[in-house]
C-alpha cells in the first residue's frame, strides 16, 4: 500500500504537497535501505517512484528525490563537492534504463530532466569519454563498408547479350553471368572478398538489431524518431536485401539488380543516422524523419489520387494516337510515371507540335497544372515549413535526447571491457555498494546576497501594494483618482512608489 501511495504522489499536480507526503510515508518505512525499501519497489510496469518521476516529466519531484540522495563530501568557501547517487540513473547495470525511459517517452517535459544535475553531467561524461569516439569510429567503419558494397555492385559479373531483340524498344546489351562463370579471373576473387564482407556485415546487423526488437517491442522500437526508429527499419531492410541478393546469386536467378539497387539506396541513406553525433546536423535528421513520416505520408495519399485520375485521363486521350510521335503515354504504367514527373514539375508537358494534338489534352493538362503545381505543391511546402518551425524551437533539446539515446545504444552493444562503469563506488567513502558521481559546485556568495535583497524588496513591495489596494477599495473611485494624479505628478517619489502606482492603476482599470 505504501509503495502504491508513493507512485500516486509522483503523479500529483500539487508538487509541494506531494513532496511533504512522500517524506512522511518514508519516515514510517521500516526497510529504509536494501531491496525491501519502498523507494526501490517497482510497480507493475517495472518503474520505481524515481523512474516514474522521470517518465512523467515531474522535474520538481525528480529534484526533490535527488536532493535526498546527494551527499556533501566537503566544502571550502564557495566550492562544494557533492556526491550524487546514480544507481538508478546510470544505464550500465540496468535492464530498464532510466535514460532510455526518458528519451522514449512521448512527454516533452521528460526531456527537460536531461538538463538537470546530475543527469546532464553523467551524460556529458559518458558521451565525451566513450560515446563520441566510438560513434565516430562506427560511422567511419560503416562508410568504408558501404564503399566496399558499392564497388562489388559496380563490378558485378556481366556478359554481352547473345540473344535477339524481342522488341524495337529493347535496349539491353548485357546480362547476368551464371554462378559458374562469375568467379574465374583474379578480379572476380577480389570481388568475392568484398561480397563476403558485405554478407557478414548484413548478418551482424540483423544479430544486433533483432534482440532489441524483441526486448523493446516493434511498435516502440520503430516508432520513436529520437531512438532512430526509421533508420532501424532502413538498416534491417538493407540487410534483408543483401541476403536476398546472395540467394539469387547462388541459385543463378536473374533479376538480382532489383534487391541490389534497393540495398544501395537504403544503405547510403542510413549514413544520415550518424549525423546525430554532431550538434549542427543532428536536429536535421529529426526534421527529415518528421517530414517523411508525418507530412509526406499524409500528402502521398492526396498525390496518389490526383496522379491516378489524371494518368488514366492522359492514357485514354492518347490511346488512339501513334506512340512513335507521342510515346510518353504509350501504355498505362508509362502514363503513371510521366504524370508523376509532371506532378513534380520535373518535365514539361509532353507534346509534339509537328502533329495534331487532341483537344482534350489541352483541357486536362490545364486543370492538372492548376491543381498539382499551384495548389498541392505549395500545400506541401507550407506543411514542411510548419514542421521545420516546430522542430527548430526544440533542436537543442532534441539533440541532447539523440545523444542520450546513442550513448545508451553504444553502452548496450559494446563489451564491458571497452566501456567501464562511470562514477565512483560508495565503498570508498563508507556509503555502501551504491555508485556516485562527484560534481563540484561553485556557490557565488554575492549572488545569494543579491537574491536575499531581491526577496526582501519583493516582500516590502507586496505589503505596500496590499495596503494601497485596500485603501483604494475603501475610499472609492474619487480617492483613487486623487491618489493616481498625485502619483503621476509627483517627481519626488521613488521608482518603487511609481511602479506601485501604475500597478494600482492597472488593477482598478
Automatic annotation (TrEMBL):
Pfam families: Ion_trans. It is a multi-pass membrane protein. It comes from the Eukaryota. It is found in: Membrane. Residues 135-394 form the Ion transport domain. The chain crosses the membrane at residues 134-158, 192-210, 231-251, 257-275, 296-318, 359-381. GO terms for cellular component: plasma membrane. GO terms for biological process: calcium ion import across plasma membrane. Keywords: ANK repeat, Membrane, Metal-binding, Phosphoprotein, Repeat, Transmembrane, Transmembrane helix. The keyword Calcium does not apply. GO terms for molecular function: calcium channel activity; metal ion binding. This is TRPV5 protein.
Amino acid at each position: 500500500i505504501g509503495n502504491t501511495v508513493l507512485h500516486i504522489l509522483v503523479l500529483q499536480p500539487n508538487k509541494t504537497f506531494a513532496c511533504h507526503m512522500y517524506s512522511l510515508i518514508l519516515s514510517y518505512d521500516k526497510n529504509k535501505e536494501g531491496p525491501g525499501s519502498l523507494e526501490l519497489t517497482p510497480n507493475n510496469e517495472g518503474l520505481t517512484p524515481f523512474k516514474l518521476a522521470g517518465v512523467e516529466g515531474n522535474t520538481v519531484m525528480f529534484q526533490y528525490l535527488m536532493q535526498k540522495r546527494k551527499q556533501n563530501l566537503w566544502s571550502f568557501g564557495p566550492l562544494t563537492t557533492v556526491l550524487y547517487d546514480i544507481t538508478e540513473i546510470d544505464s550500465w547495470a540496468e535492464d530498464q534504463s532510466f535514460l532510455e525511459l526518458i528519451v522514449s517517452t512521448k512527454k516533452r517535459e521528460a526531456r527537460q530532466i536531461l538538463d538537470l544535475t546530475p543527469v546532464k553531467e553523467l551524460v556529458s561524461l559518458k558521451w565525451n569519454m566513450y560515446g563520441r569516439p566510438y560513434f565516430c569510429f562506427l560511422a567511419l567503419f560503416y562508410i568504408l563498408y558501404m564503399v566496399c558494397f558499392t564497388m562489388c555492385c559496380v563490378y558485378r559479373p556481366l556478359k554481352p547479350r547473345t540473344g535477339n531483340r524481342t522488341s524495337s524498344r529493347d535496349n539491353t546489351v548485357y546480362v547476368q553471368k551464371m554462378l559458374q562463370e562469375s568467379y574465374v579471373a583474379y578480379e572476380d576473387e577480389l570481388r568475392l572478398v568484398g561480397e563476403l564482407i558485405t554478407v557478414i556485415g548484413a548478418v551482424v546487423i540483423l544479430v544486433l538489431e533483432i534482440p532489441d526488437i524483441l526486448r523493446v517491442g516493434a511498435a516502440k522500437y520503430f516508432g520513436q524518431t529520437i531512438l532512430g526508429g526509421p533508420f532501424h527499419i532502413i538498416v534491417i531492410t538493407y540487410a534483408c536485401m543483401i541476403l536476398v541478393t546472395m540467394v539469387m546469386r547462388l541459385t543463378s536467378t536473374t533479376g538480382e539488380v532489383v534487391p541490389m539497387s534497393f540495398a544501395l539506396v537504403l544503405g547510403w541513406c542510413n549514413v544520415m543516422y550518424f549525423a546525430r553525433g554532431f550538434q549542427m546536423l543532428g536536429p536535421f535528421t529529426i526534421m527529415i524523419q518528421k517530414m517523411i513520416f508525418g507530412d509526406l505520408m499524409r500528402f502521398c495519399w492526396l498525390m496518389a489520387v490526383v496522379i491516378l485520375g489524371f494518368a488514366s485521363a492522359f492514357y485514354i486521350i492518347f490511346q488512339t494516337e501513334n506512340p512513335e510521335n507521342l510515346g510518353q503515354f504509350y501504355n498505362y504504367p508509362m502514363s503513371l510515371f510521366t504524370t508523376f514527373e509532371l506532378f513534380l514539375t520535373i518535365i514539361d508537358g509532353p507534346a509534339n507540335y509537328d502533329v495534331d494534338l487532341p483537344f482534350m489534352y489541352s483541357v486536362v493538362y490545364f486543370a492538372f497544372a492548376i491543381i498539382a503545381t499551384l495548389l498541392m505543391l505549395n500545400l506541401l511546402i507550407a506543411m514542411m515549413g510548419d514542421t521545420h518551425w516546430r522542430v527548430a524551437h526544440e533542436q537543442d533539446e532534441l539533440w541532447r535526447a539523440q545523444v542520450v539515446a546513442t550513448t545508451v545504444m553504444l553502452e548496450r552493444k559494446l563489451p564491458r571491457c571497452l566501456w567501464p562503469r562511470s562514477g565512483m563506488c560508495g565503498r570508498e567513502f563508507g556509503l555502501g555498494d551504491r555508485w556516485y558521481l562527484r560534481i563540484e559546485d561553485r556557490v557565488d556568495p554575492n549572488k545569494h546576497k543579491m537574491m536575499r535583497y531581491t526577496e526582501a524588496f519583493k516582500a516590502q513591495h507586496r505589503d505596500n501594494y496590499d495596503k494601497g489596494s485596500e485603501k483604494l477599495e475603501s475610499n472609492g473611485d474619487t480617492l483613487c483618482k486623487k491618489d493616481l494624479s498625485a502619483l503621476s505628478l509627483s517627481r519626488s517619489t521613488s521608482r518603487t512608489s511609481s511602479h506601485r502606482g501604475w500597478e494600482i492603476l492597472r488593477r482598478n482599470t
